[in-house]
Amino acid sequence: xxxxxxxxxxxxxxxxxxxxxxxxxxxxxxxxxxxxxxxxxxxxxxxxxxxxxxxxxxxxxxxxxxxxxxxxxxxxxxxxxxxxxxxxxxxxxxxxxxxxxxxxxxxxxxxxxxxxxxxxxxxxxxxxxxxxxxxxxxxxxxxxxxxxxxxxxxxxxxxxxxxxxxxxxxxxxxxxxxxxxxxxxxxxxxxxxxxxxxxxxxxxxxxxxxxxxxxxxxxxxxxxxxxxxxxxxxxxxxxxxxxxxxxxxxxxxxxxxxxxxxxxxxxxxxxxxxxxxxxxxxxxxxxxxxxxxxxxxxxxxxxxxxxxxxxxxxxxxxxxxxxxxxxxxxxxxxxxxxxxxxxxxxxxxxxxxxxxxxxxxxxxxxxxxxxxxxxxxxxxxxxx
Length: 384
Known about the structure:
Layout: E1 11-18, E2 21-25, E3 36-41, H1 43-46, H2 49-58, E4 63-68, E5 72-74, E6 77-78, E7 83-89, E8 94-101, H3 108-117, E9 124-131, H4 138-148, E10 152-157, E11 169-171, E12 179-186, E13 190-197, E14 201-213, E15 216-220, E16 223-224, H5 225-233, E17 249-252, E18 260-262, E19 264-268, E20 273-276, E21 285-290, H6 293-307, E22 315-322, H7 323-329, H8 334-344, E23 348-355, E24 357-362, E25 365-372, E26 376-383
Helix pairs in contact: 3-4, 6-8
């Protein structure tokens, strides 16, 4: 007797907002079957309630998740549209969306643990996280998630162009600040792959972090951190903190651990300290990084290679890349997205955003996600 193999195929619809009009492509006939809608956009448009109302009316049964961005990604390029939307109709799989609001000063580790605990762990395959990008310590967010669950986790911190003023998240409600949202994926047919890669060049001396507190770096090898940074940056020193996006810091615990990149967010001339987008623990080694455009583009392709598990099937590709990469690559930034699309193939429908921080595991430790900066991260999802 011949065995019948049923193939599960997800359906994907994409759209974008152009001159206040929605342009829809690759439409889904049964909109009531849509389980998931992602939306990424420029802050000014993202916060308008009429856009959420439109999406809720068009996709009445879907979980709607998204965030403001520092650049909207659709297919193999940065979109000129102010909002990009992807709707997914899974064949047999399902998604569950939960979120938590917080206030400045709240215990973010505890808040993220409570968020992870809201999910039924039976059959949970993956969590995709979107968070406010300015009002929390991303390292504490990751710590809480890792303490509660060992399933794979990816995502990113919301952006606000190059303004760094306000970021917003949509999680089945109008856009809000100070929100952490998590999307849980369930289903035996689901296959989910992730990849994360930087591509920056190291320069300068390897040093040790001798004084720090959370994400504030005070001393390297006993010397004021800001003085050392200025010494290495030369002509770019006068443009700090903005020029710091071009010169992130690579840190690692010991020789056996992979490196994590940290983006410079601010400086304090009085204390000679530097604030980064994630924790910089005492005792870690540290080295400055500088951009190499070819290596950044190759790094994006490598992230796609690591994540690619779609085997030619229709798949959703969630792209989270760092605003720092976008600023450094400037007009060449589309080339990193083209590298991703070329590696993944045309059946993987790409959507995503440029972020203030990326969430992904290392390839050799997929159960513990990390907060990254200045990386290209990818999550590829398909049904088999």
